[in-house]
Amino acid sequence: MLFRTLIIGALTFLPLLGCHPSSLSDPERKSRAIRVIGSSTVYPFSTKVAQEFKNQTGYNVIVEATGSGGGHKLFCEGVGPGTPDMTNSSRRQKTTEFDHCAENGVTDIIEVKIGYDGIVIANALDAPQFNLRTKDIYMAFAKYIPTSDEDCTLHENPYRKWSDLNADLPDFQIEVYGPPPTSGTRDAFVEIAMENGARMVPCLAKLYETDREAFLKAAHILREDGAWIDAGESDNALVQTLLNTPTALGVLGYSFLDQNEDKIKAAKIGGVAPEFAKISSGEYPVSRSLFVYFKKANVKTTPGLKELAIELLSDRASGKGGYLNEIGLVPLSEAEREKYRRDVRMLHVNHP
């Protein structure tokens, strides 16, 4: 797994968000960096906020890309100095992760939705254009598929080429580079794209209603025969892989597509392209929410933590036309953003 770390160093202090210059006269407060970990998808947004926040306040911020799953694991190790203050996540925290937090005394967690993202299936700009149904996605990437639309006896996926499962698709080998099991992008892809695709198979739609565990076995387990290749946590490296392998596809977040539109393009899913407005409205079938979580207890031990969360939700950061909007974050509605701003200001424990 690739870990990325950005340390935002000391700069001149400028008052902002109620931070007082006198509060930085204590050397301990100056040296106590805010530590942010988690999702590689949220990483570019988090680092941008860290840089802007540092420029305005002088607070040190360390941002690490560990993947959503890895972030939640580290976040839940405890509270206070020496533990992460905030974790980024490209999905909601799972019940098992919340329970793990509680076991370690991490009980007062504040959840902040920061915006939306689409999960895209992309290929090189000069490669053929794909128009996929969600059923195609499931039939291409699932390890086990039904014998037929009406017979849900599962067997190993036999498809080797896209044209084998849908004659309208290119006659290319099925080869997709996707995020690893620790990634929130992978979790969201499985839960949204794979599940919805599986439910397009009539017998699996019935199974969804009668035996959820059996349905999830069919929908969630990805191929291990070379058709799906775990590509690590770096979406930038994935973009380079697609350029070097023009017949391959890659699964990544919309923000990376937006930043690399001169190199790669996205497949349509259900006839819908992953565009800003269509992700925000939910019309694009593989849309998701992005989150950060921080510890109420650490607000007392980590100067600037609450103010960092407020900056994340500020108009200039995550509002329409804000600096995060400019690098690919799809913003919340004003009403929804104000709800989370209120939770942060009041330190309202809103999770689960």
Could you estimate the helical fraction of the residues in percent? 25-40%
CATH superfamily membership of the largest domain: Periplasmic binding protein-like II
Low-confidence stretches: 9-25
Number of domains: 2
Q: What class would the helix/strand composition place it in?
A: alpha/beta
- What integer is the average pLDDT? 89
Beta strand %:
15-25%
Main β-sheet, in a few words?
10 strands, mixed
Shape estimate: globular
Proper CATH architecture of the largest domain: 3-Layer(aba) Sandwich
- How large is the count of helical segments? 16
The whole-angstrom Rg is: 21 Å
At a glance:
Helix content is 38%, strand content 19%. The chain is built from 16 helices and 14 strands. Helix 2 (43-57) links the parallel strand 2 and strand 3.
Could you describe the 3D structure shown?
With 352 residues, the chain is an alpha/beta fold. The radius of gyration is 21 Å and the shape is globular. The two termini are 29 Å apart. The chain has two domains: 4-117 and 289-346, Periplasmic binding protein-like II (D-Maltodextrin-Binding Protein, domain 2, 3-Layer(aba) Sandwich); 118-287, Periplasmic binding protein-like II (D-Maltodextrin-Binding Protein, domain 2, 3-Layer(aba) Sandwich). Helices cover 38% and strands 19% of the residues. The longest helix is centred in the N-terminal third of the chain and has 15 residues, at 43-57. Keywords: Signal.
